[in-house]
Amino acid sequence: MNTPNPTSSSAAAQPLPRIAVLATGGTIAGAAPDVANTAGYQAGVIGVAQLLAAVPGLDAIARIQAEQVASIDSKDMALALWTTLAQRINTLLAGDDIDGVVITHGTDTLEETAWLLHLAVKSSKPVVMTAAMRPASALSADGPLNLLNAVTLAASGAAAGQGVLVAFNNRIHCARDVIKISTYAVDAFQSPEIGALGWVQDGRVEFQRRALRAHTVDSPFTANGPWPHVEIVTSYAGVSRIAVDALVAAGALGIVVAGTGNGSIHSTLQQALVEAAAKGVAVVRASRVGSGHVMHNGAAKDDALGFISAGTLNPYKARVLLALALARGITDRIELQRVFDTY
């Protein structure tokens, strides 16, 4: 007579993690007239139920709770939707019945949304974003595998406490580091300065390092609004001061400049920004270069001009952090520099 193994029985009865999949649209939910068309498609037209149905094996990884939060092309991402998304994630993760969240998103603004959530989510439970470079209707669409890997990652205990992660093309990226580097390639996301956190493939998750800067539960920021007016200008050969003057006149509270090289700024634009800073506008120096950091020049330059250094954040992520800091009432330049040095 065979005696049942109580240990094996207990392990088999262990319920799968419950993962909430929040869909926002994007190319991953896009459709084109034919399978060879990877450019002339409409984003965000496929619902979350159809997205999940195209990924066999999900039910062996997690119990899925699906929600359609939005159905947009991510180029049209709005601040109000950021607030909605952050609040919904925080509500879901505050309960005991959700173990992690996966967000499907368009690639165009994914790095900005990921960074915002990295600072505004108040839970150590896994939050994973994913997307696709080819629409769901395309031959060799990359969305289903990316979504499978994202759910696998969110269901993994190793993802807890890592902040917001991006699962794309088998790699795991930190929301702070990841950027889009290609207009068409399925390997469109990289972390160029220090590399990916790890990888996920064939159901296996492996981390090679952890993000060291404060995030999520260790971040004081929220995305509850109202959102301060923060814009980006770019330095280039022959640039005028028109954009800066117009933004100051319109009441902008912050301006991020995408400078050349190590955040250097054309003298004409710099003068306009110095005047803006003197009027109380927060001015942050970032770089239009794809990787590297913008050094804080200290008393010799930044302090004298009234500027703040973005460090390793690109202009788009610097704008997000500046907006969150200003929304929290941080306006002193020294305190703002401390924010950029910390997060």
Task: Please outline what is shown here.
The protein has helices at residues 6-13, 48-53, 79-94, 110-120, 143-154, 242-249, 267-278, 302-305, 315-327, 333-342; strands spanning 18-25, 63-72, 100-104, 127-130, 164-168, 171-174, 179-180, 189-190, 198-201, 204-207, 230-234, 254-259, 282-287, 307-309. It has 343 residues and is of the alpha/beta class.
Would you kindly provide a written description of the structure presented here, covering whatever features stand out?
This protein is of the alpha/beta class. The chain has two domains: 16-218, Rossmann fold, CATH 3.40.50; 230-342, Rossmann fold (3-Layer(aba) Sandwich). 29% of the residues lie in helices and 20% in strands. An eight-stranded mixed β-sheet has the order 2-1-3-4-5-6-9-10. A four-stranded parallel β-sheet has the order 11-12-13-14, sandwiched between helices. α4 (110-120) runs parallel beside α9.
Following the backbone from N to C, one meets helices and strands in this order, namely: HEHEHEHEHEEEEEEEHEHEHEHH
Helix content: 25-40%
Strand content: 15-25%
CATH architecture of the largest domain: 3-Layer(aba) Sandwich
Biggest pleated-sheet summary: 8 strands, mixed
What's the end-to-end separation, in Å? 62 Å
CATH topology category name of the largest domain: Rossmann fold
CATH superfamily of the largest domain: L-asparaginase, N-terminal domain
Principal-axis shape: globular
- CATH classification class of the largest domain: Alpha Beta
- Give the mean pLDDT: 94
Count the strands?
Answer: 14
Structural domain tally: 2
What value does the Rg take, in angstroms? 22 Å
Low-confidence stretches: 1-11
Strand order of the largest sheet: 2-1-3-4-5-6-9-10
Count of separate DSSP helical elements: 10
Structural class per helix/strand content?
A: alpha/beta
